[in-house]
Design a protein that fits this description.
Shape: globular
Distance between the termini: 52 Å
Order of helices and strands: EHHEEH
Helix content: 25-40%
Largest sheet: 3 strands, antiparallel
Strand content: 5-15%
Strand order of the largest sheet: 1-3-2
């Protein structure tokens, strides 16, 4: 081991951190972002959100970036 400290950025954020990452409240995140990003099941009661999906969403809001897949929201597939 080299004794170096490596700082890693998380790939998945919980709802509070995801909202903070996008500089908005959790309520705004739920209404504006949640319908457009994938939810990752972290445990029976916790969900997470991929940083890459959040980045794509904010890029779309800024008028650039790539499209999220049509099936990004797993609830859309339940019918």
């Amino acid at each position: 081991m080299s004794g170096r400290i490596v700082q890693m950025s998380p790939r998945v954020l919980d709802i509070g951190d995801a909202a903070s990452y996008l500089a908005m409240s959790v309520g705004t995140f739920r209404t504006q972002v949640l319908p457009h990003v994938r939810q990752i099941v972290l445990s029976a009661r916790r969900r997470g959100y991929l940083v890459s999906d959040l980045d794509r969403w904010i890029d779309q809001q800024a008028g650039g970036g790539t499209e999220l897949p049509a099936s990004a929201n797993p609830w859309d597939m339940m019918s």
